[in-house]
Write a structure and sequence with these properties.
The chain is α/β, with parallel strands linked by helices. Helix content is 49%, strand content 8%. The chain is elongated, with a radius of gyration of 32 Å.
Length: 453
Amino acid sequence: MSLFDELPDPPLHSSQSPLHAVAGTGAPLAERMRPRSLDELMGQEHLVGAGKPLRVQIERDDATSMIFWGPPGVGKTTLAKIVAETTEASFIEFSAVTSGIKEIKQVMAEAARAAEMRSRTILFIDEIHRFNKAQQDAFLPYVERGTIRLIGATTENPSFEIVSALLSRCRVYVLEPLKDEQIAVLLRRALEDTKRGLGALKLEADDDALELIAGFSSGDCRSAYNALEVAAQLARDEKKITKAIALEAIQQRVLLYDKHGEEHYNLISALHKSVRNSDPDAALYWLTRMLAGGEDPLYLARRIVRMAIEDIGLAAPEALNLCLSAKETYDFLGSPEGELALAEAVVYLAIAPKSNSVYTAFGAVRRAVEESRQEPVPLHLRNAPTKLMKELGYSEGYRYAHDEAGKVANMDCLPEALQGSRWYHPTGEGREKLLAQRLDEVRRIRAAKRARS
C-alpha cells in the first residue's frame, strides 16, 4: 500500500484552452477578471516586458520547466495559463494541498499518451512546496524525458522547499507584489467591464476609495478584487463606492506574513538589522509588523534578548536586564499590554551604544578551541586538595591576586602554547570604554611586574 493512498482523489482540471474556459457569472470577480494574454497582464514587467526573460521563453516556445515564486495574488496561476494558451499546450492543474502520488501517476500516464500523439502537456502545480521529497522526485523522469512541462507555483523560497534535482531542471522566476497604483487601475477596469466585471451594476467609485482598497491589499490583487466585490454589494443602493464603504469592506489590512516560512525570517532579519543600525523607528515598524501578523511575542522576546547580547554587549550591559524584564513583563501582562514592554526594549536597544566585541571574541575562542590541541591546565592553576597532588606540583607557583599590588599577579593563566593570545578587544563605545581603560591598566601593571622579575 502506498504512503499516499489515503489522500483524497479530487478531479483533475484539464483544458485545451485554460483562459477562455473562464467560469460564468457565478465565479468570483478575481477569476472572471483573470488576464488572458501577456498584454492584459498588469505588473511583472521585469519578466514579461519586451525582451525580458519570461516573455522571450514563452515567445520562443522554450519547453523548459519553470517555478513561479512570489506572494499570493500576483499572477502565478495566470502566467501558467497564459503559457499554455500561447504555446497551444494541454493544461492540467491540481493543488499540492489535496493531491498525492496516485494523482501524479494518473497525470503522468495521461501526459505520456498525449506525447505519443505529439500533443504537449503543461502540468501546473499550485503550492508545489507542499509536496514532500518523494512526491517531488516522482516528477523527475517525466520532466527529464520531456513528457510534461512542469510549472510550479510557490510562496516559499524554492531553495529550501524544492528538491535540488527538480530545481536544477527548472527556471525560477520571482514575481513581485503589484504596486498600489496598478491595483487601483485593475479595480477601475473591473468596475467598468460589462462582460467580465461589475460594469452591469453601473457603479461609480471615488478614487480615494479604490486607492484605499489597493493600499490595504498589500500587493495581493485577488484580495483587492474580493474587497471590491464586497464594496459593490454594500453600494448597490447608493450606486457609489465611497471611502467609508471601502473601509467597511476591507475590515482589516491583508498582512503578508508566514510564521514558518521565508517572510518570517525576512522580517526578523529586518528587525535585528534595524536595531543594529540604531534606527528605532524602523525597529518599531518591523516589530509591529510581526506582532500584527500573529508572531509569538515570546519568540520576539527571545530574539530581543539575543540582540542585547550580540550587538549591545558590554557597551550597555544593563540592556540585557532590560530585555529580560520586558520578557517577564509580557509573561505577567500578556497581550496587548505586554507588547509595549517589547517595544520599549527594542527602542532602547536601537538607541544604545553598540559593541559586538564579546560576540566576536567568543567566536574566535571557539575556533581556537576547535583548531588547537586540548592543552592541559597549567599546574599552578590546579587545586591541590591531596598530598599526592601537592607532590606532583599542583598549585605550585599560584599567586593570589588579592594579595598583589593593583590586584594583578604576574602569572600566566593560559596554556603555554597559547600564552600571549588576545581575543577580546573592547570598543570605545558606552561603558565598554571604561572596560577598555581598565584592561589597559591591568596590562600595564602586569608588564611592569614582569619587567622587574
